[in-house]
Amino acid sequence: KIIYLKDYQAPHYTLEHTELHFELLGDYTEVSAELRFKRALTAPKEAVLTLLGADLELLSVAWSGQLLSANDWQWQDEKWQFAGAGEGGVLSTKVRIYPDQNLALEGLYRSHGLYCTQCEAEGFRKITLYPDRPDVLSTFRTTIVADKASCPVLLSNGNCVATGDSENGRHWATWEDPHPKPSYLFALVAGDLAVLRDSFTTVSGREVALEIYTAEVDQDKCDHAMRSLQAAMRWDEERYGCEYDLDRYMIVAVSHFNMGAMENKGLNVFNTSCVLAHPATTTDAGFQRVEAVVAHEYFHNWSGNRVTCRDWFQLCLKEGFTVFRDQQFSADQLSAVVQRLEDVAFLQTHQFAEDAGPLAHAVRPESFVEINNFYTLTIYEKGAEIARMLHTFLGADGFRRGSDHYFKTYDGQAAIVEDFLNSMAVANGLDAGAFVSQWLRWYRQPGTPVVSVNSVWQKDIQRLTLTLTQTQSSKSSSTPESLPIPVRLGFIGKEGELSTSLNGVTANEHLLVLEQAEQSWQFDDVSQVPVLSLFRDFSAPVRVKAEFGDADLAQLIRLDSNSFNRWSASYALATREILALAEQYRSGDLRAHQPQESALAAAIAEVWSELAASDPALAAKMLQLPSLAYLSDQVACYDPEALQRARESVLLQVIAPLQSALGTVLAKQEMLKPYVYSAQAIAARSVEAVALDGLARLQSGAAAAIAQHWLKEAPHMSAEQAALTTLVHHQLPGADDALQAFYARWKHEPLVLDQWFATQASAPQAETRERVEALLAHSDFDATVPNRVRAVIGQFANNNPVAFHDAEGRGYGLIAKQLLAIDARNPQLASRLAGAFGIWQKLDESRQAHILRELDGLLSGDLSSDTRETLSRIRG
Ligand code: ARG
Ligand code: ZN
């Protein structure tokens, strides 16, 4: 069943208050609800009270004290309708649910003794009969009753207003949330948890209690999340004027969780992987993820909770904006450049591919079957890029005026994308009608725009004429319209950056906005023919078509003042060389066996040693050549073997001249120093990890010895993980023993064990498929834990192209079989994994046939609506 944005209708009844009572009883749970409804002013004469309910055992229903019977209402699919609600009244219901049997991890579920909820987007209807839609907001009062011994901790949103003991060893707690909220932000947690407490004093002097709840054994892994939370709270006050609004802020770590984390009002529920961090068990990447996710969920308190979404088509309104906010925050905590290039590489690798494949959709889609399938890279990451373009276009101050206006105007309301754009325009004195309709195109048109670049330099008058042309993907259903595209650019001459004039303004950098299909600009005082440094810091999420020669790109790598663009030039050059070589392999061109000169290798050789000392993070990034996933998006026909071989060959050419530089880097032994979380320390470790990987390609014996040394002396997981990955992925001597020792040392730590599984499942060799079969049979493999499933099956399908795209189709067969089993328990998890097949149209005919056979097999059987939607969209 397809739901359309154009069919949106306001609810006939508003909800003034919600009163919930949970009896958590071992085998089942009884939920009683009292809902006070009022007919909406806008409701038609024949108003109907419509609630939603799924998988509920309905025990009783009463309307303003009168018991109702099944004849009084209609209940079809998930929709429960009652025509007798008149001007309004109180609906009282009682239902029974089974949290222990809930393996979908949506609604209320219990795993390893811990009760918790996940309601976004439509999980609340699995808890009780309710107007489960984001535009119905109410205050909540929730009472939880449970066994005191097994569930000493009872939590819900807001403030705890009363607690007490009852008979039979049970106890209860009542929570009140004064801020009206939609049901997707409801949360309940009950179990045996330890807590780390701290506090935060807001800008206006309110003291907020901060609490992080985890299993007792994980209490020593909460400091980083706590510090991140405090930093995020301060940052949001300073950068956005957003202050926290309750007396308490709680985070709970949960081991069985479908996503990263959830911003429930005052009670965030987190995947353990996004909250726990300790130097002994967590890598640098893990620490950074915790910081970013803690901030992301906190920022939702304003962009999501205080101002929420009218309907799920507006999901990007809270997610895109909040991702942009968390990216800004992370840039302020560590290195802004590294943050930006990681975000951009991620977007270009995964979101571009999504937007070019069968799962492409608009940032604000017009229709969907299963909303859970739309928590996508397009909504999150491309949505964030749109917010960033507005920030670039309006300037930091202008953007802040817009966000102030937005938060103030829509506080307590459920908004739409137009409201956000309207605030940006109004607060900056712009023509709102024109602004909204122009920027809305970014939200409505799927596909990545292409910008073509043409420049002509006239020596005699020292003028450069730049012409930019934009074309939209033909995927957009209606006729695509031109988008507003901010272009930050500079000019790089033979000795470095040039200053130029545009409309009388002389500067090293200019901001243009391409609005028409084609536009030209004239720059004066251009004293030599420059190389254009375009889309600095990736000022717009577009593909750029420009005729750069190898020497031009090399010039940018050497001389651009914009570090991001130095990196992106190296990425572009690497991509060009790898694709050319792969093409030669494919066509059987013999010259391919004598690798040609690499302009990339020459440019990197020239700058790398100096860069490794002055900017080690950037030096590290320059040696991480584009992944196969990125490259596959750049080609029309994807041949994983040829690409892999070409990539290895170019990498070797780049690394070979650096042998002694790598030695210098590794001699510093930064990896063996005690753990410090800082941009500088992370950069030093990252360049050493990359150097070790490089050395493994040149001198495997020396690399193995260093890896063993790190494993033995490692003061933290960043060193241990880098060493293990190098040994395993390069199949160095001692790899198997290292894996065994690592397992023995860490088998009691689930998150480290996930890494152990993931390292093996992502080893880029064909034999990995057999290894994965063995891992699936390992006693520590548990298919009911999403993190474990992602560590093995997800890594294999999404992060191991060589093994997944086995020419005989055995990789596809393995995934299809697992998918079916997982789907029966956890549709959201399965549907996400199914996305791995989205690449099929780019593969050769034989691989296509293998995938299609699997897809048709799956589609002809029993599937959840989530997975069915994803697979049928992929199938086309
Ligand atoms: N709102 C959460 C976040 O981005 C994620 C919720 C994901 N929900 C889902 N059904 N996939 O912070
Ligand atoms: Zn979010």
If you had to describe this structure to a student in words, what would you say it looks like?
Its EC number is 3.4.11.2. Residues 225-439 form the Peptidase M1 membrane alanine aminopeptidase domain. This is Aminopeptidase N. It holds the Pfam family DUF3458. Residues 550-874 form the Peptidase M1 alanyl aminopeptidase C-terminal domain. With 876 residues, this protein is an alpha+beta fold. 42% of the residues lie in helices and 22% in strands. The strands form eight sheets. Strands 6-5-9-3-2-12-15-14 form an eight-stranded mixed beta sheet, with no helix packed on it. The protein has a six-stranded mixed beta sheet with strand order 30-29-32-26-25-34, with no helix packed on it. Strand 27 and strand 28 form a beta hairpin. Helix 15 packs parallel to helix 17 (717-729).
Describe the structure using short key phrases.
26 helices, eight-stranded mixed beta sheet, six-stranded mixed beta sheet, 876 residues, 42% helix, alpha+beta, globular
Instruction: Write down the Rg.
Output: 28 Å
Large-scale geometry? globular
Bound molecules: arginine, zinc ion
Q: Report the end-to-end length measured between terminal Cα atoms.
A: 17 Å
> Quick one: how many beta strands?
34
- Which strand order spans the largest sheet, edge to edge or round the barrel? 6-5-9-3-2-12-15-14
Mean pLDDT across all residues, rounded?
97
Secondary-structure class: alpha+beta
Percent of residues in beta strands? 15-25%
Family: Belongs to the peptidase M1 family.
Organism: Paraperlucidibaca wandonensis
Domain Aminopeptidase N-like N-terminal: 107-185
Cofactor: Zn(2+)
